TrEMBL record:
GO molecular function, one term: 3-dehydroquinate synthase activity
UniProt key word Endoplasmic reticulum: no
Residue ranges constituting the 3-dehydroquinate synthase N-terminal domain according to the UniProt record: 56-165
Annotated coiled-coil segments of the chain: none
Name by which UniProt lists this protein: 3-dehydroquinate synthase
Domain of life the protein comes from: Bacteria
Length: 354
């Protein structure tokens, strides 16, 4: 099924069960695929192009050095500037392949076939590609939208349960950005994944990205849960997965919103949130470790020339509201101290209770 996207949107979006070879590029193409998907791809009857690269790239290797051999390989083939690269994998692989496609011959076309729930619901759409630097995640990258996104839910069959949960947090984020309490509650219930949830998330993100492709305003709402989330993810030494850290950040944002005088979320949302997040409590770093990371956040607003300083910087924070769209507010990093403490207390209480 082709999803409807705004007129002129850079990416055609398809949501299917089984992969369909008809959606592969017409003309010359190559593939960068996650090794874990090689068998499933072949079993689905999908072709493997000559010169395909099958790779295993862990989050720690989301680095520029990983894509250099790919670029050298394409240059040796040589891959023509009219060729298309197909990325088959999770967010790490699609961020890197998109980045490589943006660099090769100053930019060639690419398609993305996301294979994790997180990539289907979020990472693969929106044209942000990137790699990490030692100073932080996603500090280098390019906006380079894929021509086509093809999400095939059958490919999720082998995805480990922890990664299914991980992707679910980006869906909960999507619901909370829109103030969709009932949807957030449904997502937090135990039960099988629904394809309709992915469809809803893709449709929402396509609209936001189309209206604000360069993140000048509305697109910043997609960072809900990411401010505290990124700090917790880095402070855990990346033992927390991205989505898990976002989940913690979402609860933190609900608490911060209330402290900022916004309408509080009801226990019917907060209780299942706490219950789902409680197993992550041991991974929450102490406040002293989070503060410097928050001050260095990419969304921190510093005076020109000033170095990141927790006492003077402000961060663009996204605050959710029940029943209404989330709002943005510039706040000092210290504003997160109390939500961080409450988050820890709530999750510890819950893990003792269970
Ligand atoms: N570009 C964006 O807008 C954007 C948005 C959100 C997140 N991201 C990035 O996404 C990355 C996280 O992506 P992720 O959660 O998909 O993790 P991931 O790409 O590391 O994949 C998770 C694991 O699952 C394996 N895997 C992938 N698909 C599988 C399948 N179908 N069956 C079995 N195993 C499979 C992978 O090999 C990997 O070990 C982060 O680097 C984050 O920065 C990017």
């Amino acid at each position: 099924m082709r999803l409807s996207t705004p007129g002129g949107f850079a990416t055609e979006v398809f949501l299917l069960e089984a992969p369909d070879r008809e959606l592969l590029p017409v003309g010359a193409w190559t593939l960068v695929g996650d090794l874990r998907l090689r068998e499933a791809w072949a079993q689905a009857g999908m072709p493997e192009p000559e010169h395909a690269l099958w790779v295993a790239v862990p989050e720690e290797e989301k680095k520029l050095r990983t894509v250099i051999p790919w670029l050298e390989h394409w240059a040796r083939i040589p891959l023509h500037r009219d060729a298309t690269v197909v990325a088959l994998g999770g967010g790490v692989l699609s961020d890197l392949t998109g980045l490589a496609a943006s660099l090769f011959l100053r930019g060639i076309a690419w398609q993305v076939w996301p294979t994790t729930l997180l990539a289907m619901a979020d990472a693969a759409l929106g044209g942000k590609t990137g790699a990490d630097l030692s100073a932080g995640k996603n500090l280098v990258g390019a906006f380079h939208a894929p021509r086509r996104l093809v999400a095939c839910t059958d490919l999720l069959a082998g995805l480990p349960e922890r990664h299914v949960q991980n992707g679910l947090w980006e869906l909960v984020k999507t619901a909370l950005i829109q103030g969709e309490l009932a949807w957030a509650q449904e997502l937090l219930q135990e039960g099988p994944l629904k394809v309709a949830w992915v469809e809803r998330a893709l449709a929402f993100k396509a609209g936001v990205v189309h209206r604000d492709p360069r993140e000048a305003g509305e697109r910043r709402l997609l960072n809900l849960g990411h401010t505290l989330g990124h700090a917790l993810e880095a402070a855990s030494g990346y033992r927390l997965l991205h989505g898990e850290a976002v989940g913690l950040g979402l609860l933190g944002s609900c608490l911060l919103a209330e402290e900022q005088g916004l309408k509080p979320f009801p226990p019917s949302l907060l209780e299942p949130l706490v219950k789902r997040l409680a197993p992550l409590a041991p991974q929450i770093a102490p406040w002293a470790d989070c503060l410097p990371l928050l001050a260095r956040d990419k969304k921190a607003l510093h005076a020109p020339g000033a170095s990141p300083d927790a006492s003077t910087s402000q961060i663009q924070c996204v605050l959710p509201r029940p029943g209404e769209p989330a709002v943005q507010r510039a706040l000092p990093p210290a504003a997160w101290e109390s939500p961080h403490a409450r988050l820890l207390a709530l999750l510890h209480q819950e893990s003792v209770r269970v």
